[in-house]
Specification:
Helix content: 40-55%
Strand order of the largest sheet: 5-4-3-6-7-8-9-10
Order of helices and strands: EEEHEHEHEHEHEEHEHHHHH
Mean pLDDT: 93
Low-confidence stretches: 1-11
CATH superfamily of the largest domain: NAD(P)-binding Rossmann-like Domain
CATH architecture of the largest domain: 3-Layer(aba) Sandwich
CATH class of the largest domain: Alpha Beta
Number of helices: 11
Structural class: alpha/beta
Shape: globular
Radius of gyration: 21 Å
Number of domains: 2
Length: 296
């Protein structure tokens, strides 16, 4: 139920500009509407995408003119792929109102935060962000207001002092109202952690699905025998490469290290398929799963 425009610490995010109207941007817009967190939601994107976002009620109005989209915004959410966010930041130096808080939802943070520091400087307030929520299927047609419920929402401020800014405090309260759980951390630490916890799982899922697809073509492997285990392991393989290209490009060193560590782990298991070492690997894995269940 909507409760009227959201206010906190004297700051009102009356108008929110959402730059990028895919799954995350659309869900952000729907959550703003569902929980009454903004009076006006303006979307930016290609006109065809804007039309779908309007139909889904993820925005109140939309445009393919970035300047028009952000000119009256109190909050600007960059919900585009990482590469598009990097391209957009320099333009906001002149287009964004000085009062506006600029934030993003990119899956890598170090490169984005550095670009924001270089291009926006002290003239516009930027807060790095990454909601750890999503689906395999992209697009505003798959957006939902509840996407951020119970999800960790990483925030990477450019300076610790920014956490005391009323606009940042207001944004933290806003995403909390959406059901998210804010988590403050350093951009570099975020990127290393996500290389293991998000980017590696994606590549592993895609690699497994690609391997079996290749095997199916070469040996007529009966893929119809795939049960829930294989289907669950390859669920992420539905994610589009267009999203992951930028992520891999901007976190290549951390992802490469994670892949190398995984190759070593697989090689170790390969060498100990019949020994007690394999049982210890299973036990260690089960312990992590139990920890994940407890932490939620």
């Amino acid at each position: 139920m909507a409760h009227g425009p959201f206010t906190t610490m004297g700051t009102i995010f009356d108008e929110v500009a959402i730059v990028g109207l895919g799954l995350i941007g659309g869900s952000f817009g729907l959550a703003l509407k569902e929980y009454g967190l903004a009076s006006r939601r303006v979307g930016f994107g290609r006109l065809a995408t804007v039309g779908r976002a309007l139909q889904a009620q993820a925005i109140d109005e939309g445009t393919d003119d970035l300047g028009k989209a952000v000119r009256d915004a109190d909050l600007i959410v960059l919900a585009a792929p990482v590469g598009a966010i990097l391209d957009c930041l320099p333009r906001l130096k002149d287009l964004a109102p000085p009062r506006a808080l600029v934030t993003d939802v990119g899956s890598t943070k170090a490169v984005i935060c550095e670009r924001a520091r270089e291009t926006l400087g002290g003239q516009r307030l930027f807060l790095g962000g990454h909601p750890l929520a999503g689906k395999e299927r992209a697009g505003v047609e798959n957006a939902e207001a509840e996407l951020f419920q119970k999800a960790r929402y990483v925030l990477t401020p450019l300076a610790e002092s920014h956490l005391e800014d009323p606009r940042v405090k207001a944004f933290i309260s806003l995403i909390t109202a959406m059901g998210a759980r804010p988590h403050i951390m350093d951009p570099a630490r975020h990127d290393r952690a996500l290389a293991f916890l998000s980017h590696l799982p994606q590549l592993l899922s895609s690699a497994l699905a690609s391997l079996v697809a290749q095997e199916g073509r070469e040996t007529r492997l009966p893929v119809e025998l795939a049960a829930s285990g294989f289907r669950g392991m390859t669920r992420l393989a539905e994610s589009p490469y267009s999203v992951w290209h930028d992520i891999c490009f901007t976190n290549v060193d951390n992802i490469r290290q994670a892949l190398e560590d995984l190759v070593k782990k697989l090689e170790f298991m390969k060498q100990h398929l019949t020994g007690p070492e394999l049982e210890r690997e299973f036990e260690q894995a089960a312990e992590l799963r139990e920890k994940l269940r407890q932490t939620g």
